[in-house]
Amino acid sequence: IPKVDFDRIRKDFTVLDQQVNGHPLVYLDNAASSQMPVSVADRLDAYHRNEHANVHRGIHTLSQKATDAFEMTRRKVQQFIGASSSDEIVFTTGTTDSLNLAANSYGMENLQKGDEIILSEMEHHANIVPWQMVAQKTGAVIRVIPVLDNGELDMQAYKELLGPRTKIVSVIHVSNALGTVNPVKEITALAHEHHAVVVIDGAQSVPHQPVDVQDIDCDFFTFSSHKMCGPTGFGILYGKKHLLDKMPPYRGGGDMIDKVSFEETTYNVVPFRFEAGTPPIAAGIGLGAAIDYLNEIGMEQIANREYELVDYAVSRLREIEGLQMIGESSNRASVCSFVFDDIHASDLGTILDKRGIAVRTGHHCAQPILRRFNVPATTRASVSFYNTTEDIDRLVDGIHYAKSFFE
Ligand code: PMP
């Protein structure tokens, strides 16, 4: 495998080349949103300057060109995640939207009173609340896979939760709060033994490792463009074709119909049935450019590079007296979450920001797992392939400074 020059790659991210509060920016909030390389920003700019038109409906040349560029993203996504057909790629506005679509369309259609939905204790709120709302309407019951002290799923407990009433298992691939990489292939195989449908929240996995939905064999898979070098406002719901075909639309409007009259409306084919109204065209084309960019580096290379960075971060953070890691799994991607007994996360985050270091503090939209670890908030540093070991050193120096400040 040819060695990738990550120093050169870092230069593609012009946003990193700036001072924040008088210090060179250290960006370690990639789990919230990753940065965008120049090629993606240029692609957006070219679209807005020269190619903007509405898609799917236009007979004129500009509209057809916009449609071709936009639909090309569907094929790029299909290949990127190993789906068998581009019809299985539904465009949404993000992971949250994708999960709401799965819950409201598949869930509302297939759940009955007493049916069970299995989630895990480490879910993001986006993979809890939509299911709760659907459970309230259908009378379905939510069961929760507990998390072990090291931040991994209790797989034994999961096996015991599975049963004849299990209809849906919806779990996070990589935890945005702990960094744990979950065994989604095994989780899926076990669920399928009980004829349950599996939804995977891949918001934190797709940006960091190769993903093959056919290998995992999950039924639905969701992720967001803005965490994988693409623009905000765009996301994906992958669904197996035979399931999508049977699902009712979630939103009504233009583009998602076949024929409309006041007496009766028939719906468009999959995936367009789920894409009412004018989509975020520019963002979709931007995601296509982001996928090209990631493919050029190679997801294996990205995973290896980030593995080294995370490994370095974990070992350097562990040297700091009083620092307690939340989530100790050795199977970890991008995220290091930690707390101090005597320094509040938001104070630490503020002091780090004064030194140009961007981290996330708070509950990371995953309150149940923070409650599980008895902490109200953590400080979260999350790396991407364009980070460096110097970035980690700056973080560690910043934490030492904050500690001396509070002592
Ligand atoms: N799931 C996970 C694991 C996430 O990290 C996030 C983003 N924080 C989401 C879902 C929600 O993604 P979005 O805000 O892009 O809809």
TrEMBL record:
Residues 26-395 form the Aminotransferase class V domain. Its cofactor is pyridoxal 5'-phosphate. InterPro entries: Aminotrans_V_dom (IPR000192), Aminotrans_V_PyrdxlP_BS (IPR020578), Cys_dSase_SufS (IPR010970), Cysteine_dSase (IPR016454), PyrdxlP-dep_Trfase (IPR015424), PyrdxlP-dep_Trfase_major (IPR015421), PyrdxlP-dep_Trfase_small (IPR015422). Keywords: Pyridoxal phosphate, Transferase. CDD domains: SufS_like. GO terms for molecular function: cysteine desulfurase activity; pyridoxal phosphate binding. One of its GO terms (biological process) is cysteine metabolic process. Belongs to the class-V pyridoxal-phosphate-dependent aminotransferase family. Csd subfamily. This is Cysteine desulfurase. It comes from Rhodohalobacter mucosus. The lineage of its organism: Bacteria, Pseudomonadati, Balneolota, Balneolia, Balneolales.
